[in-house]
């Protein structure tokens, strides 16, 4: 599977992590989140969101870095968060066994656009072909694993129909 272009940390101007620890691929879970914040439809506005989210996670949540493994914009791009090889802070008890993939926007009342959905499908295929995700990986929404609305009801109703979804 062709891997999508991933906007690297250097490209979006990420801050240096305060700490990091590695994870052992292949991972078992792909966990879908939303940021419940602003959506973005251009490279510039998505980069601005990435910086806001990283600042919030590092300065308000006190985490070492942006929490998610990857983020998806409605510009159709994948943005590198912690990436494939570093433990995230996205889902309690699942940070070391899953990748947290978060869609920028609030998807309670509306699902992400076609460009964002195509991007995640490519990312997931790519992850299996590169050995980051097990071929029999399980896809979940954050709400399946904790008390949260995340990734928003409209989006959750959609991912429930995806092939590797299992609540
Ligand atoms: C997301 O959108 C829903 C519906 O408009 C709203 O009730 C909720 O407060 C929003 N979430 C955040 C964190 O703003
Ligand atoms: C995992 O991520 C969550 C964020 O959802 C964070 O609160 C937690 O401290 C992280 N670590 C563990 C061991 O759950
Ligand atoms: Zn979440």
From TrEMBL:
Disulfide bonds join 3-126, 40-46. Residues 4-146 form the Peptidoglycan recognition protein family domain. Keywords: Disulfide bond, Immunity, Innate immunity, Signal. Pfam families: Amidase_2. GO terms for molecular function: N-acetylmuramoyl-L-alanine amidase activity; peptidoglycan binding; zinc ion binding. One of its GO terms (biological process) is innate immune response. It comes from the Eukaryota. Residues 16-152 form the N-acetylmuramoyl-L-alanine amidase domain. The keyword Zinc does not apply. Belongs to the N-acetylmuramoyl-L-alanine amidase 2 family. This is Peptidoglycan recognition protein 1. It comes from Latimeria chalumnae.
């Amino acid at each position: 599977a062709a891997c999508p272009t991933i906007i690297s940390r250097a490209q979006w101007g990420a801050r240096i992590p305060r700490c990091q620890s590695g994870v052992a691929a292949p991972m078992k879970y792909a966990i879908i989140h939303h940021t419940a914040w602003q959506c973005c439809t251009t490279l510039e506005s998505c980069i601005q969101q990435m910086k806001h989210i990283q600042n919030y996670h590092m300065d308000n949540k006190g985490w070492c870095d942006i929490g998610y493994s990857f983020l998806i914009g409605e510009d159709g791009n994948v943005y590198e968060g912690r990436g494939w090889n570093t433990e995230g802070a996205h889902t309690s008890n699942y940070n070391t066994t899953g990748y947290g993939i978060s869609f920028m926007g609030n998807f309670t009342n509306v699902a992400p656009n076609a460009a964002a959905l195509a991007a995640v499908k490519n990312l997931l295929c790519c992850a299996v072909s590169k050995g980051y995700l097990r071929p029999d990986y399980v896809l979940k929404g954050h709400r399946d694993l904790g008390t949260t609305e995340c990734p928003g009801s409209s989006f959750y109703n959609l991912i429930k129909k995806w092939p590797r979804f299992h609540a």
